[in-house]
Specification:
The longest helix is centred in the last third of the chain and has 14 residues, at 273-286. This protein is 5% helix and 46% strand. It is mainly beta. The chain has two domains: 26-155 and 279-291, Jelly Rolls; 157-260, Jelly Rolls (Sandwich). The strands form five sheets. Strands 1, 13, 14, 17, 18, 19, 20, 21 and 22 form a nine-stranded antiparallel sheet that branches. The protein has a seven-stranded antiparallel sheet with strand order 2-3-4-11-6-9-12. A four-stranded antiparallel sheet has the order 5-10-7-8, with no helix packed on it. InterPro entries: Pirin, Pirin_C_dom, Pirin_N_dom, RmlC-like_jellyroll, RmlC_Cupin_sf. Belongs to the pirin family. Residues 189-285 form the Pirin C-terminal domain.
Length: 328
């Protein structure tokens, strides 16, 4: 998915929070077009840039595709990050410039590593009537951000506990471990809680995020309404999640504090303003939107006939880094 905001450097402030838990409200961002599908963005925000290495979170649906037109994102670039797609309903066709083509459906992880540069397109399938899911980005650390491109698809098993069912698509939790190698320690899981259920998230030293998809939960005693994101800084003690009377579905994610500053603009993650300028220029020249260009393309293009998405105009000021919290 592409960040299609006209001014992608701008973020919003946090919502109301309880002791020890920060609650962040979503904001609506249209993906573009007259019948635009709208996503609810909770990360990044001015109050919070990273949760572990996670730096971006869009939550969408359930959308009636006959009304919204579904997802139709033409070829666009990424660098310095990995994308994570996780669906609750519907299907998306993925094509990338490393030659990967995949159909993404509910209950299956789609992990695309951009490394030094990749481009891809994403479209809901013709058979999809309702589209519902999340897309998340992970910032790559210094020693991996110019590495190889990659794509992984994984269907985690459903694990059951007292009052809940979970699918762990990254990391280890709830008695299961995903066999996926990542550049930093990560946790990612869908958890479905029965009415009134309580579950412990035991991740010592991890910053933790909880996105509420359906229902309501309390996170460490703080109420989280549907669509909101809760954040807790890294601690040693377990986090208690409790569902309301109708049950809930949440996405639990996190990791150790990232410990590096990043500059994130549009679909790029770099380390300073000048890198972002160079990434944008490389993409614009590759797609013919600007003259010139490097001898060796950074991104390449997927096997997709649609015109590539040009980059927005850079802001008139230098983009400032966002700091991850330092590890102890």
């Amino acid at each position: 998915m592409s960040n299609v905001e006209a001014r992608p450097e701008e973020v919003v402030c946090a919502g109301q929070s309880g002791p020890g838990i920060q609650v962040l409200e979503p904001r609506d961002v249209p993906l573009g077009g007259p019948r635009a599908m709208t996503v609810r963005r909770t990360l990044p925000q001015r109050a919070l840039s990273l949760i572990g290495a996670w730096c971006f979170l869009d939550h969408y649906g359930p959308d009636d595709v006959s009304v919204t037109g579904g997802m139709d994102v033409p070829p666009h670039p990424h660098t310095g990050l990995a994308t994570v797609s996780w669906l609750f309903s519907g299907q998306i066709e993925h094509r990338d410039s490393a030659g990967h083509e995949a159909r993404i459906g509910p209950g299956a992880l789609s992990l695309m590593t951009a490394g030094a540069g990749i481009s891809h397109s994403e479209r809901s399938t013709a058979e999809t009537t309702v589209l519902h899911g999340v897309q998340m980005w992970v910032a790559l650390p210094e020693d991996a951000r110019f590495g190889e491109r990659g794509f992984t698809r994984y269907e985690p098993p459903v694990v059951h506990g007292e009052g809940y069912a979970a699918q762990v698509f990254l990391g280890s939790a709830f008695g299961d471990s995903a066999p996926i190698s990542t550049a930093t320690q990560l946790l990612g899981a869908e958890v479905r809680l029965k009415p009134g259920a309580r579950v412990l998230v035991d991740q010592p030293g991890f910053e933790l995020g909880v996105l509420v998809d359906t229902g309501e939960v309390t996170m460490g005693g703080t109420a989280l309404p549907a669509g909101h994101l809760g954040f807790r800084e890294a601690r040693e003690e377990s986090l208690v999640l409790a569902a309301g009377g109708e049950g809930a579905r949440v996405v639990v994610f996190g990791g150790p504090p990232f410990g590096e500053e990043i500059v994130m603009w549009w679909n790029f993650v770099g380390r300073d303003h000048d890198e972002i300028v160079a990434f944008r220029s490389a993409w614009q020249t590759e797609i013919g939107a600007e003259s010139g260009g490097p001898e060796h393309p950074r991104f390449d293009l997927p096997a997709d006939p649609a015109p590539a998405l040009p980059a927005p105009t850079l802001p008139p000021v230098r983009i400032r880094p966002r700091a991850g919290r330092r590890r102890d």
